[in-house]
Amino acid sequence: MDVTTKEIAFECLPIVRVYKDGTIERLYDSGYAPPGPDPSTRTASRDVVIDPDVPLGARLYLPEPANSATSAKLPILLYFHGGGFCAGTAFSRLYHPFLCSLSARARVLVVSLDYRLAPESPVPAAYDDCLRGLRWAAAGSDGWISAHGDPARVFLAGDSAGGNIAHSVALRAGEAGLALEGVVLIHPYFWGAERVGSELRTGAFLRPDHMDGLWRFVCGGGAHHNDDPRVNPLVVEDEWTGRMKCRRMLVTGAGKDILRDRARAYCDRLRESEWDGTIEYFESEGEDHVFFLFNPRCQKALELMDILVAFFNKSG
């Protein structure tokens, strides 16, 4: 049967479509980008296997000339890609140029995690994989990390579902005694049973009616709902804010993104809590969800890159 005539079981555009015969179309896939030296940014990249049994891998980015004998140790940035927990890869043409630029501009050693995807590996597989990747990086388990990374300056960052993952891994890192310097949530995927603010409108990129069913889908169905604290941390009072052990946070939004207002509310919750860190919010006016990946040379994307670089380079 032709794919155009098959019955759809679930879809969340523009991320994924699943047919009743089990066929999965991952619409967020932009194709594979090979690792290696990038002349335009003077970064080197290579792929590593963290745990072959999972399997779990990552792509590492090292700014040049970090390999010189006199180079100072670099902050270590664990990056988690977006894709609604069910699409995307650390090895894609969408993320490779962005992370080359970020590594070069911010002078950070990037570990971009290629975590398992739903529905084959439902949540919490992505959380578990990314926490495992953090432990691996913090232990200096790779030659680049042990030679060039500073274990006293570890950051987490991610966009969309990757921002959600960064939030969750930051909470679990505190429980595990893993120290974090900072966390960056770029257009984070948080949702809820009751729509609020920007979620009431249909965006050019994300549709609220599709987002309503995404969490249950990536969790494998059953009784999972949109007020699960992992996707809606605001439904829990202040219990989670006490587990946030990083010193600094940056949350970014986009003016046309339907996820924008919940990201703002997340910042407000942290500011009003007894958490003793500092949090910044930055919004790209007139832009939609993860626009910087699709149009990296536009003025707003360059402005966002400047904000990210300033956050990673900030001391004290």
Automatic annotation (TrEMBL):
Keyword terms of this UniProt record: Receptor
Alpha/beta hydrolase fold-3 domain boundaries: 77-292
GO molecular function: hydrolase activity
The species this protein was found in: Iris pallida (Sweet iris)
Active-site positions on this chain: 160
Name of protein: Gibberellin receptor GID1L2
Origin organism lineage: Eukaryota, Viridiplantae, Streptophyta, Embryophyta, Tracheophyta
InterPro entries per UniProt: AB_hydrolase_3, AB_hydrolase_fold, Carboxylest/Gibb_receptor, Lipase_GDXG_put_SER_AS
Gene3D superfamilies per UniProt: alpha/beta hydrolase (3.40.50.1820)
